[in-house]
Amino acid sequence: MRSKAELESAIAGGGRAVLVINSRSRRGRRLYGTARRLLRESGVEFLHVFPVTDPTRLRDLFADVLALEPDLVVVGGGDGTVAEAVGHLAHRDIALGVLPLGTTNNFARSLELPLDLPGAVRTLAVGRPGAGKVADVDVGWFESTGDPQGAGPGADREHIFANMVSLGLSVQVAENVPHALKRFVGRPAYALTAARLLPRHEAFTARVTIDGETRELATHQLNIANGAHHSGQRIARDASPDDRLLAVYRLGDERRLRLASATARHVLTGQWRSLSEDAFLTTARVEIETDPPMRVDVDGEIRGRTPVSIRLRGNALRVIVPQAFLDT
């Protein structure tokens, strides 16, 4: 593995770069041509461009990407596209660059990337004025029961996640949010879908074990975050994908109105809250059980059911971030 400085120098010197862009994402189709033009004008050249019209092919496509032995893989799309890339690029001598073209762009926000396309492209033009740098950030790793993936060669990578594991209402929201609504209204589509589903959602009790101590939490929603954002909103002012911590927190208790009020508080005060507050449990490893077993949402994809074990892998992913990003 090269040092971060060596990899950054290789990229700045015209290293091997590949572009993967999801033209089915909320903004991908509309901005594909603009993104190509801005990248070209910024001096970022690519060995190969993979426009993705069928997201189900992403996993197979990355075999072709890695065969090119790139120094930099730029991924344009939403959190699902980025999450797929993270699993393939973690623990490799390759930097991930992100063009945030999705609905919530949680991972891009956690990396403190500009969400406007010109700003994101400017960050990727490593070695040029106003450009970003190579940093290494944490990823998560999970193992759930009955996961339909994660077996056979390369199985370990299929357990890596970028941003969040969650249980509860968000699983139903992920399955039921209308794509057309996401396309037209963006992030509010998730809140509108949650409001529609909440009156019929049943609370659950989770047994959360950290360092041998088990706590029981009654709630409608439990999150385990590696990143700093959920639903496009900051979790806490000091949360970061580079802090060597998983943040475990629930939204409200077993009362439905508490979930609504806790979600509103999260939206309004997340940027001022701290991970040191009682609302959060921070750890590098957590085990979660529920009775009955519940489905597990991993970066927006259903991946088995509880019990689930979640661990942190520190500094496992190299990314292009703004110069101001604190790289620890």
UniProtKB/TrEMBL annotation:
One of its GO terms (biological process) is phospholipid biosynthetic process. GO terms for molecular function: ATP binding; kinase activity. One of its GO terms (cellular component) is plasma membrane. It holds the Pfam family DAGK_cat. Residues 12-146 form the DAGKc domain. Its cofactor is Mg(2+). Keywords: ATP-binding, Kinase, Lipid biosynthesis, Lipid metabolism, Nucleotide-binding, Phospholipid biosynthesis, Phospholipid metabolism, Transferase. InterPro entries: ATP-NAD_kinase_N (IPR017438), Diacylglycerol_kinase_cat_dom (IPR001206), Lipid_Phosphate_FormReg (IPR050187), NAD/diacylglycerol_kinase_sf (IPR016064), YegS/DAGK_C (IPR045540). Belongs to the diacylglycerol/lipid kinase family. This is Diacylglycerol kinase.
